[in-house]
Write a structure and sequence with these properties.
Helix content: 55-70%
Shape: elongated
Number of helices: 6
Oligomer: single chain
Number of strands: 5
Radius of gyration: 22 Å
């Protein structure tokens, strides 16, 4: 019983933080889904972006819990330096994965082409003109007129010039 008396402030703050976590996750999910619906994004792409946002919120909550419960700074630094060392080595070896995930989120929110569009990638050595079949977390899946399927990394799409040759709404009648 003395545990509850001794840590009342921390327990209340933790409860409030978990309520805030639930509220933030619900609000962010609704906002992303509303944006996805207005921009005609595909469901699994929307779910990917929601997953990344939830991960970011969870990291913030864990950080807040550490602050609330007053974990010693020395202990935090020891744990973080150990974790950072391991993650740093892994990320250095897999830096392109992180770059592609970030590019996938940027493509979701702000890039002008959608699934079904025919795009031209202005690459000096390997120009591509193809239809966008899918946009994943790491790659964009393209299909040429010859039926060739190309998997193109998201981070390269942000580095190359792109022309939209044919919008996917050009042949379809769009009804709200």
């Amino acid at each position: 019983m003395s545990f509850f008396n001794e840590y009342t402030r921390e327990l209340i703050a933790t409860g409030i933080l978990f309520l805030l976590l639930i509220l933030l996750r619900i609000i962010s999910t609704k906002l992303v889904r509303r944006y996805a619906k207005s921009s005609h994004s595909i469901e699994h792409r929307t779910n990917l972006v929601i997953k990344y946002i939830h991960l970011f919120i969870n990291i913030l909550v864990v950080t807040a819990l550490i602050i609330i419960w007053g974990v010693q700074t020395k202990d935090i630094f020891i744990a973080l330096s150990s974790i950072t060392t391991v993650v740093g080595v892994a990320m250095f070896a897999q830096w392109s994965i992180l770059s592609n995930i970030t590019s996938g989120i940027i493509l979701f929110f702000s890039f002008p082409f959608k699934i079904g569009d025919v795009i031209k990638i202005h690459d000096k050595d390997f120009p591509i003109e193809a239809e966008v079949e899918d946009i994943g977390a790491f790659h964009v899946y393209l299909k040429t007129n010859d039926g060739e399927k190309i998997i193109y990394p998201n981070n390269l799409l942000l580095q190359k010039g792109i022309s939209i040759m044919k919008n996917h709404f050009d042949d379809k009648e769009f009804i709200d």
